[in-house]
Amino acid sequence: MNQETDNQNIPIFSEEKIVTSVDAISNSTVESTNNQVKNILSEEISEDLRLPSFVVQKENGIFVNIENLVNREIFFTFLNYIFENGHYFRDTNYTLISNLLYSFEKTKKFVLENIKNTSGSAEIKIASSIEKFDEKRIGLYREVKVTEEMSAEYSFGPAFLEEVGENGKITEIPAKIDIDEFIAAIWNQKIRFGLKIKDIQKAIDEDKAARVIVAEGMEPTPGTDASLEEVVFFGQKLGIKNTGPRVDLQVYEQNCAQVNEGDVIYKKIPRKDGENGWSVHGDQVDPEVPKDFSIESYVGIGVEVKMINGASSLVAIYDGFPLREGDVINGNEDEWSTFVDGKKTKRLRKIHVNKEQVFADGINMKESGKIIDSQRAYNSGSDVLCNTEAKKMTIDGNVVANVHSLEGVFVGGNVIGNSRSNPFCIKNEKFGGEPQGRVVTADGDITVEGHAHSAYLEAKKGIVRIPRITNSIIVAKRVEITQSVFNCIIIADEIVITGKVIDCKMISSGKISIEESTEKGSFENTFSLFSLDLTKSIEMKKKLLEEEEKTLIGKQEKIDDDLVKISKMSTIIPDRERRVGITKSLIEIGENPEQTEGKDEKVLALFKAMKPFLAKVNVDWKKYKKIQSSIKILTEEIEAETIAHEAAEKDLHLEIKKIECPTYVQQIKFTENRKLLDFTNNQMEDLYTLLMGLDIPPVFKVEKMDVPFTGQFYWPESN
User: Fold this and answer.
1) 564 or 289, which is more confident?
2) Residue spans per domain, the chain
3) Which letter does DSSP use for residue 166 in this model?
4) Where are the beta strands (DSSP E) in 179-290?
């Protein structure tokens, strides 16, 4: 047999494993199509055999014209016709025949795209010739033993032909089997796939007794079940995130999964069918049908299904944190459908997007590292040990770090700070070290259900609520303390304490309401009412305004003098004072030509006539406009400060319902127009110095009030 093909570019696949991209050819199909062979026969090759139109016999062999070969079934019928009618192929190109039978479409496509392009012919050689199978030699070929239709075994050994002598005696003559005859013989035994040509040829050449596997089927290639592919990484990325010029080793590249609206969380990988296998009989062996599922079954809160880049995907409806819901595994599960939650492996059930991220074991170096994310809300199920910046914070445990949020902080436990938590004490910077226990919110409230110690709480636009607090500072719009406050500084627009106050300094720009001012040892309490004293500021600005207005009038008179010299304006308007007023209007029109509504038509006509002359006036217009701007600013500031000064003491109110210790009340007046909670850092440091009794900065005035040693105190007294 010729092991090589004359057409070297034919895709010769492994003799043991033929590529199976075609459908099976069942025996029933063969039987039904075998009856049709006469319809495709055209060229007579012998008395009992004719060739179909797609087979060409030439001097150098038997060829198949691939263009004329319609399908694999017809080719199978042709082969069956040859072998069952007692013929075989000489120098069989078995690999090519197998490819046409079991990979027909791929082989035909390759021939048409490659071989025809180079040779101009679509004919491929399958054998040298077609020979008649000698009936005497048919008996040389034994029966094969088939195992489960996937393996065929043949017993090789010495073979003999029987010859009858003249005397009628039968003599056995040694004979050698032929591989081309072998192919035809076992074809007629229904062995049509996976012949091991090399092993067969070797056994023939050795010519000794041996049991050899001569054909092997091919198991079907399993398909792939449908699955969900994780697009968002749910774990931590422990790489250091670059947050500025200084590297912070506590900030992880990712402490939890986050998504924005429209982000893909999971995408479905469709199931993929497996490839057919083949039995040694040439029958198709179907693979198992891969598993499938509905992606809609995984849709949870905040998630929807969309087609993204051709894939069914679970997409976030809004910004937030993706959460996998599952239950504990009881048996074997597909790897894609499981995830690790803490120390447990769970089966995936739903995908949600939460608007806040929950760290059940707290915010610490193991669970999260520092959090720097002002766009999202976070929930700590235990203590916060790492600094956190978030949109909103809910903390079930204690705070032993710094927390900054935009929309509020809830602490179910305590806030524990240190000696460096006070931002107004300059000496803390000298000693170095990191502050802890600072809880700050820009626009929300701070609620602490436990107590605070050595902490700093700031809610300049909201309320600080806490039952007990010691050695701490509070800065807030409103402060509510229900039990006790010891050794604290409180700066707020409104302070309401329904418990005991011990050794505290407080200042309010509105109301202070104290249930009990009491002592613990030799301590004392100081309550301050904040107001403004802008008398000097207003007087100074009025004086500056007067000077600027005089300067402006002088400039306008100078412009008038120049206009008189270069125009006939003095003859048109003889009165100087009236002329200066009109000149002022002309200048205003020149500066704002679009704002002419309400102007006298005569003045507008005059401006049109005088515009060329105004351009020639020798005036520093830049300086002129600067004076105008200064006058406008001074006027607005005087008006604002006058209103603030007159309203400074309107809302002030102080009540102490029970006095049992040295208690001091004072009115602190600030000489600049600024609200208490709008103080700059430097001004807040000055105020801290004043409250601690260390110094009275020049921007403050202090007026003491008489307070009884015991009893009650109300201010104003009418209350």
Assistant:
1) 289
2) 27-216, 227-354, 362-486, 498-533+648-719, 544-623
3) T
4) 210-216, 227-230, 237-240, 252-254, 264-269, 277-278, 284-285
Evaluate if residue 321 carries a pLDDT over 80: yes
| Nearest-angstrom CA–CA distance, 524 and 704 | 15
Amino acid type, 264:
V
Q: Give the pLDDT mean for 632-636.
A: 89
Coil, helix or strand at residue 682? helix
User: Which has the higher per-residue pLDDT, 106 or 33?
Assistant: 106
Q: How far apart are CA 403 and CA 440, in angstroms?
A: 6
Contact (CB, 8 A) for 655 and 666: no
**Can you read off the two tokens belonging to residue 541?**
């600005």
- Judged by phi (left if over 0) then psi (alpha if -120 to 50, else beta), residue 711 lies in left
Backbone angles phi, psi at 103, to 5 degrees: -145, 50
Burial 5-16 (b: 16+ CB within 10 A, else e): eebeebebbebe
Q: Looking at the predicted structure, is the pLDDT value of residue 361 above 80? A: no
SS3 512: strand
Half-sphere exposure of 251 (CA within 13 A, CB side): 13
pLDDT of residue 624: 74
Q: Structure pTM?
A: 0.62
Max distance between CA atoms of the chain, in angstroms, equals 167
Q: What confidence tier does 603 reach under pLDDT thresholds 50, 70, 90?
A: low
Among the ranges given (40-44, 252-256, 558-562), the one the predictor scored with the smallest mean pLDDT = 40-44
What's residue 15's pLDDT?
35
653 bridge partner residues: 511
Q: If DSSP codes are grouped into helix, strand and coil, which group holds residue 251?
A: strand
The angle subtended at Cα 488 by Cα 486 and Cα 494, nearest 5°, is 110
Per the prediction, the chain carries an average pLDDT of: 82
Q: Where on the phi/psi map is residue 282: left (φ > 0), alpha (ψ -120 to 50), or beta?
A: left
The yes-or-no verdict on residue 529 having pLDDT over 90 is yes
Average pLDDT for 589-610: 63
Q: 3-class SS at 521?
A: coil
Q: Are 264 and 231 contacting, i.e. CB atoms less than 8 angstroms apart? A: yes
Which pair of structure tokens corresponds to residue 368? 């999260």
CA separation, residue 494 to residues 464, 479, 513, 644, 658 (Å): 11, 6, 8, 18, 19
Q: Which of 132-136, 342-346, 446-450, 480-484 has the lowest mean pLDDT?
A: 342-346
Tell me if the bond preceding 612 is cis, omega within 30° of 0. Answer: no
Instruction: Tell me, letter by letter, the H, E, C secondary structure of 263-324.
Output: CEEEEEECCECCECEECCCCCEECCCCCCCCCHHHHECCCEEEEEECCEEEEEECCCEEEEE
Q: Which of 155-164, 282-291, 463-472 has the lowest mean pLDDT?
A: 155-164
Residue 625 in tokens: 């406009």
The secondary structure of 327-388 as a DSSP string is EE--S---GGGEEEETTEEEEEEEEEEESEEEETT-BSTTTT-BEEEEEEEEEESS-B-S-E
Rounded to whole angstroms, the Cα distance separating 121 from 183 reads 28
pLDDT at residue 20 above 50? no
More confident position, 436 or 3: 436
Are 193 and 282 in contact, with CB atoms under 8 Å apart?
A: yes
- Helix H or strand E segment including 206: helix 197-206
Distant-in-sequence, close-in-space partners of 38: CB < 8 Å, separation ≥ 6: none
Please state the rounded mean pLDDT for residues 579-583. 65
| % the chain with pLDDT above 70 | 76
Residue 467 has a CB neighbour count (10 Å cut-off) of 17
Provide φ and ψ at 11, rounded to 5°.
-70, 90
Extract the tokens encoding 220.
């079907």
SS3 content of the chain, % helix, strand, coil (to 5): 25, 35, 35
